[in-house]
Amino acid sequence: MAKFVPQPELSLNDQMQIRREKLAALQAEGRDPFVQTKFDFNADSAAIKADYEAFEGKTVKVAGRLMSKRGQGKVMFCDLQDRAGRIQIFVKIDELGEEEYNRFKKYDIGDIVGVEGEVFKTKTEEISIRAKVVTLLSKSLLPLPNKFHGLTDKEARFRQRYVDLMVNPEVKRNFVIRSKFIKHLRNYLDSMGYIEVETPVLNTIAGGAAARPFVTHHNTLDIDMYMRIATELPLKRLIVGGMDRVYEVGRIFRNEGMDPKHNPEFTTVELYQAYADFHDMMDIAEGVYTTFAKEVMGSYELEWMGEKIDLTPGWPRLTMVEAVKKYVGVDFGVITDDAEAVAAAKAVGVELADAAEKTWGNALYACFDQKVEEHLVQPTFITMYPVEVSPLTKKSPEDPRLTERFEFFINRSEMGNAYSELNDPIDQRERFVKQAEQRERGDDEAEMLDEDFLTALEYGMPPTGGMGMGIDRCVMLLTNSSTIREVILFPTMKPLD
User: Fold this and answer.
1) Engineered SS bond to 318: which of 34, 294, 322, 492, CB 3.0-4.6 Å?
2) 329: alpha, beta or left, given left = phi > 0 and alpha = psi -120 to 50?
3) What are the structural domains, with CATH classification, of the chain?
């Protein structure tokens, strides 16, 4: 008996050459797959599997990518991956005809085909399609990654998301959930009477957030312009104009560091409501999350990065002073002196940033930022932020050192930011001036002075509640993703050498 000798694996170049030769042969036969303009499919894998009794014995048309081929001789089985999942295709020489069957045998894993055939179950009870006609719709000239190892290298996955989606079908789930969340968000706000709007991505002033902008140049106007770091200021101009409830879902660009929670471009929703305050924004934030979890995900309980998260309505609300007292042991509520506050922070190992003024407010915020966030696992609203770190927020009537602002945190991550918006143009100018002074001291994330926005405020802006929420981080939570790159289809990557 002859000894089996395994065949050496072909190199990538050899595989590519063979596939191109197959394409050339098809084209020489007048069967160029790339001349196909459409294929009228009438079913997909998920629909067939979900309602097999309705499809059994019926002729259907499906289309997708060949992901596997097995068998030899007169019968072959293959897996077809379509828009909804995978389904087995049963190909038999007697059904297809000898000429077409032999041609089908030459098709490669990765080729895109249209299949017409009868729905049935195999002896092993697997729902399948008995192929009567197979049409090659597109030739794959590159082989898919090894079927046993797949595409597991994260760098490769993010650089070639198209391959990632092909060979790791579970990845698609993240982006389906992302799409459903954005749709849910829009429906939630629309039902409250909000209007979705669009504001400029290119701006002459980078405002609305403490962030470093990307700078570009407009050739016709011969001026530098900034990619937007927030949509806040244009949206508040619309509130001034009488559009009482507005929101925008859009891309934001910040020239900052990259880590599991940060990408230079990301998606937010910002919303503004006249005659409302930050308490109303808390209700909306909690409502959007909890209704989606219950209605779409099926449960208030989720897992994110090893932590069990409970989104049940009724999230705790703590002032920053209360949170620092609870988790750090320093009661800023009884401290009135700046020097005493800075000393209290230093006593617990907290140092203020070099560019920050040595004030009570900056000391309080530094304690929170460095010592408290790590404890906020379950959904928690932190309210009443210091004026120093809230240049666009209305001061608290009870304590002018604080503002009516909140951020909410889930699993140590900040998920949203909201204010009772500052509508006093005189106060706003003073805060812009202080921010400008901070920029001069070296803080390139401080706010720029926006004269047009101040003019808008001088016409009068009603009391307004506003909020910004990161879409990407929310989707990270909903999909149990450890990095923002898992929920952005094409994350920013350094070019390969």
Assistant:
1) 322
2) left
3) 12-144 (2.40.50.140), 170-316+378-486 (3.30.930.10)
What is the enclosing helix (H) or strand (E) of 410?
Answer: strand 402-410
Sign of CA dihedral 161, 163, 165, 171: negative
Q: Is 26 helix (H, G, I), strand (E, B) or coil?
A: helix
* pTM confidence score: 0.91
Mean pLDDT by 10 residues, the chain (497 residues): 53 93 95 95 97 97 96 92 96 95 95 98 96 97 72 83 91 96 98 98 91 95 97 97 98 94 97 98 98 97 97 98 98 96 97 90 97 98 95 91 97 96 94 85 82 97 97 97 96 89
Angle in degrees, 0-180, between the axes of helices 360-371 and 338-347, rounded to the nearest 10: 20
Contact criterion met (CB below 8 Å) for 140 and 108: yes
338 CB-side CA count, 13 A: 10
**Chain centroid offset of residue 69 CA:** 35
Cα 470 to Cα 415: distance, rounded to the nearest angstrom: 6
The residue type of 94 is D
Residues 6+ apart with CB under 8 A from 345: 330, 351, 352, 363, 364, 366, 367
How far apart (Å, rounded) are the C-alpha atoms in residues 129 and 112?
16
DSSP state of 2: P
Q: Which residues contact 60 (CB under 8 A, 6 or more apart)?
A: 42, 43, 48, 116, 117, 118, 119, 129
Query: Letter for the amino acid at 92?
Result: K
Asked if residues 149 and 168 have their Cβ atoms less than 8 Å apart, the reply is no
Report how far residue 41's alpha carbon sits from residue 43's, in angstroms, rounded to the nearest whole number: 6
For residue 426, what are the contacts with CB-CB under 8 A and spacing of at least 6? none
Phi, psi of 436, rounded to the nearest 5 degrees: -65, -40
DSSP E strands in 305-401: the ranges are 307-310, 317-319, 380-386
